[in-house]
Amino acid sequence: MDKRPTSHDVAHLAGVSQSTVSFVFTGRAGISEATRDRVLRAASELNYRPNLAARSMRTHRTGRLAVVVPIATMNPLTLLSGAISAAREEGYVVEVVSLPEDPTARDERLSELVDSGQYEGVLAFTPLPFTDTNGGGGPVVLSVGEFDDAMHMTGEFTDSRPIAEMIERLAAQGHRRFVHLAGPDDFPSARARRAAYLDTIARLGLESLGVFGDEWSGSAGEAAVDALPANAPPLAVIAANDVIATGAIRAATRRGWTLPDDVAVTGWDDHPQSAFLVPSLTSVSQDRERLGAYSMHRLIAAVRGGEPPTKPDGLLTVIWRESTESPR
């Protein structure tokens, strides 16, 4: 059996001292980014993992981080994958801890987590009853607030500037008449997209046939387009997500309206199937994985007492497709 790689092996491959390897994996300040990257690349190549138990006894660091999420939810999977990958690249072990739905039980579980002494930092994508216990000697606790208690998106992904971008481009193509198919009003993201739609229509002096719907369903999009007057086209439909947009496309096609000539349709979320609809759907891609990695880098910087990372640009991107673009 091949012997397990050691910090000496990593140091030799990276061309640094063994103490430098130790400093990198314990988060010691004063290591240049170039040196740290070289050590981490060497560790990855050798599949080296530090001995966490020995490191904890020697440095009082556990090398462990926790990410907390509400129980039985699938929404933040891509956020989690980005966060976990970022932590592993920095030499940390990450545990995902689910929280009970009951507020009292959730607060008790959080207190147990923070007081356990097992973690150097705790990252949450939902609100927490406290934000940072490190002043009291416990782990750093960072709540980045990308979801509310009901796992409705808040934070970065309520940025609705892509709505304005889509309307502006459609107006430049000659569209003057628009309709918005909205999501439920208890979702911050749905409220933000509705507001962006109304503001942009007013700013550009365009005609709106109204705001319809209050659920994230294809049937809601279908019903809204079915209810439009026969003389509605030419028309641009701004749907609050891709599922609503698919219902709108079905209803428009059934009414004999062609896309994108009679009716242009946009969605949001860029679901994997959206590129394969007929016509393929213009949508907004959300880079949740990169946001998860950024959030984890914020936590690690706080744990190590370093400078916070630069916030990434371009987390939301409009993907233009056939539902708004005539073939050239």
From TrEMBL:
Matches recorded under SUPFAM superfamilies: lambda repressor-like DNA-binding domains (SSF47413), Periplasmic binding protein-like I (SSF53822)
Key words of the record: DNA-binding, Transcription, Transcription regulation
Source organism, top-level taxon: Bacteria
Signal peptide: none
Domain HTH lacI-type: 5-59
A single GO molecular function term of this UniProt record: DNA binding
Keyword Transcription: yes
UniProt entry tagged with the keyword Transcription: yes
InterPro entries, alphabetized: HTH_LacI (IPR000843), LacI/GalR-like_sensor (IPR046335), Lambda_DNA-bd_dom_sf (IPR010982), Peripla_BP_I (IPR028082)
PANTHER family reported for this sequence: ALANINE RACEMASE, LACI-RELATED TRANSCRIPTIONAL REPRESSOR
Protein name per its UniProtKB record: DNA-binding LacI/PurR family transcriptional regulator
Originating species: Microbacterium foliorum
